[in-house]
Predict the 3D structure of the following.
Amino acid sequence: MRTFRHSIFAAAALAAVVGGGVLLRAQTRTTGAPAAPQSTAAGHLTSPKEAWGHNVGDDYFLADYTQLGAYWHQLEKESNRIHIKSIGKTAEGRDQWMAVITSPQNYAKLDHYRDISARLSTAEGLTEAQAKALAAEGKAVVWIDGGLHASETLGAQQLLETVWQLVSGTDAETQRLLNDVIILCVPANPDGMELVSDWYMKHGNMNVPRLWNHYAGHDDNRDSFMNALPETTNVSNVMYREWYPQIMYNHHQSGPQGAVMFAPPFRDPFNYFFHPEIPADIDLIGSIIATRAIEEGKPGVVNRKGQNYSTWWNGGFRTTAYFHNQIGILTETIGSPDPQSVPFTTRFSIGDSSDWYPIAPHEVWHYRQSIDYSVTANKAVLDFASRFREQLLIRMYEMARDEIKWGSEDHWTFTPHRRPESARRFIRTIRSSCRPRARRSRTAAGIRPCRTTAAPPVRAAGARAAAVAAAGAAAPVRPRSGPRSPPRSCAIRAATSCRPTSPTSAAPWTSSTRSSSPASP
Ligand SMILES: [Zn+2]
């Protein structure tokens, strides 16, 4: 039931946003009611060019972390849309800055909105009615990071451009995003950004003679399940103890050859331990990123088999978030301050369901083009969060509510344990579905058809009695003597009481294997 209901929402949202997304967005941009006007404290906003003499993404230029921090603090003085906070110290003792970007009206109630996000995410002590009221009132929270792998310089640099556009934008969409969403922008590896940027600007290459995370080197994205690194601890504190963002976006580099960006949907198999809304929403938002890129004339955003990424690794920034019911988005994008090319590849020369809008080969591809793709993807995610603000918040509550319930009971296993009624229903289903297969197998393997009688009636009331009865029904029935059938570890076989018809059809069954059978203690 729950999956069906969620599927309806996901399908409706996908149809509305992907199918008619371009039209919908175009209409909103021209006819949507303008949001409350945003003001700045000082009037003039310092642009990146004024700050460093370069635009973000200029060829042969990388801003370092010191410049990032100084620039964000400058913007904080000039604008009431951005507020800078240190979320902790890095391994080398730097402050790890987080830019909180939202409307001044939202910022005035920031603690209140953070509390709403936290309460819905944990779902503790909330009724459905209370949750709906909080979702209607709250603001979507979106986390965007960059530069986790410091040699992937695009991640940190695109963060600079994104912040600048959100702070300086006067268009209706930017103002709507600021009104509906609280945006958390965080450089994921400050020490690495300083090291790599400084080395590049001094030597003109990325051949840094030491690793760019003080302890973990490149693999700082393997720490999120244990938080051994100070940067990971800082991030986890914000994501899982303070803000509980509904969406987190983790930028990486580089995209596959012959394309510009890999975005979700990821290849199968998805991790089916997550709440089913998580993979559904990942696919939905990934499709919206591609849709917006198509709308803006940006080809070369590929998905699924376009790259080998999945949701199975459980210890990364993005994948750990899934276990907190946060929709984690990963993109891998090409880009370098040294101009590069987009080569011809047979793989991406003709469009398919993993590459809706192939890109033609480019002899020269500038860093700024990759910055623009990254900003497009960020705005696609923020646009989704704005349009589906209330749904994101209430679904955060629903996922938490479901998982508290599921974690309190055996909701899937057919081993009679805590839910004997469910177990007995399951066993009856397995028996009835097993019957034709067993008949077919009789001549081939000498297996007698499964017994199809229902589980014995529960004579005594109470969960324990029912559990005992269901356990009895699940136990395999063995011949009293003689060799038995080969042990089948499959519990379904045990539950359906299939047994050999003839001693000659069975292989020897030693006492040691007997002890490991499902019926043995
Ligand atoms: Zn990476």
User: Anything to note?
Assistant: Residues 420-477+485-502 form one domain. Confidence is low (pLDDT under 50) at residues 1-39, 438-521.
